[in-house]
Amino acid sequence: MTARAEIVVDLAAVRHNVALLRELAGVPVMAVVKADGYGHGAVRVARAARAAGAEWLAVATLDEARALREAGDTGPLLAWLTVPGERYDDVLAAGVDVTAYSVAQLDEIAAAAARLPEATASARVQLKVDTGLARGGAPRAEWPAFFARARAGETDGSWRVTGLWSHLACADEPDHPANDAQQAAFDEAVDHAVDAGLEPGLRHLANSAATLLRPQARYDAVRVGLACYGLDPAPGVDHGTDLRPAMTVTSRLALVKHLAAGDSVSYGHQWTASAPTTVGLVPLGYGDGVPVAATNVAEVVVEGKRRPVRGRVCMDQVLVDLGGDTPPAGTEVTLLGPPGDGRPTADDWARACGTINYEIVTRLGGQVGRTSRRYVGG
């Protein structure tokens, strides 16, 4: 490794995970590759997911959908997060399914659909309803007007409704009462849509956690994000699924120095050596996605041993306690990777930093430019 820091993504692990989830679910898989594939690289992960049998891809923004189309993906693709005034024209022309939350949004999509060239088929629209997450999606009080407008757009040829979906708030807690309540609300929304004259199309509710833990929520497709990358969407819940983490993050020691008892390190002197020791300087910091919350709590691996972070995480660097060892500058440092050989995992970092594994990989993997990204297994 010659880079100061490197993100290694195992595409074979992605393929394994997607194929496993496809077999488990028994329905089409929609692989979520938003946020640059959770820091793993959307384009390469998308290709791996397609190769493993993912019938659909999903992203948050229209720009993310454009990037996949520009990279050559032509398969079913859903985008779901827009703001008023965004232009839908090119993504509709590219056959991207766009998501609507409101009558006003449907009106914007209709205006864009009217500008499509005659050779282009009508727009593809999926309808999202709020079943209790209270985030995106049409709230229950607006369902009658929302579904009526969607049906009117089908009648006048503006679009074809291709799906109806919602998102669970507590799927990682299988016994939480919100799961039953949201699924009942989703079934009610489907009934409302049918009463309005719509064919709901692809019904999807299950995220990664529900795919693993709630078979009754799988409907016509499952949306799997975190699980595609081999990370556990419900830590602490036994689901017995052989997910394989795809990301490894490494760096190199830039400097090794001796400390005397009483020496303090980094901003604010938040750690002081109680005995003589050595510390190594790792050229990664919060500018590279290392959480400041890792201060004095996270661990890395150097020469096969766990080494604790010492002192406050800085923008570009962090110190680790080498316990008196003096490996040479340039020695590899592993921040996280798949379990084995003592490596900290994304879950270990999440527990140490008081956050979730989603945030760890998305932050660390999303800093291409300051770090390099390399693919293996594909």
TrEMBL record:
NCBIfam families: alr. The modification N6-(pyridoxal phosphate)lysine is found at residue 34. InterPro entries: Ala_racemase, Ala_racemase/Decarboxylase_C, Ala_racemase_C, Ala_racemase_N, Ala_racemase_pyridoxalP-BS, PLP-binding_barrel. HAMAP family: Ala_racemase. The active site is at residues 34, 267. The keyword Isomerase applies. Residues 246-373 form the Alanine racemase C-terminal domain. Its cofactor is pyridoxal 5'-phosphate. Gene3D superfamilies: Alanine racemase, Lyase, Ornithine Decarboxylase, Chain A, domain 1. This is Alanine racemase. It is an enzyme of class 5 (isomerase). Its EC number is 5.1.1.1. The lineage of its organism: Bacteria, Bacillati, Actinomycetota, Actinomycetes, Propionibacteriales. It comes from Nocardioides marinquilinus. SUPFAM superfamilies: Alanine racemase C-terminal domain-like, PLP-binding barrel. Belongs to the alanine racemase family. Keywords: Isomerase, Pyridoxal phosphate. Catalyzes the interconversion of L-alanine and D-alanine. May also act on other amino acids. Pathway: Amino-acid biosynthesis; D-alanine biosynthesis; D-alanine from L-alanine: step 1/1. It catalyses: L-alanine = D-alanine. Substrate binds at residues 135, 315. Pfam families: Ala_racemase_C, Ala_racemase_N.
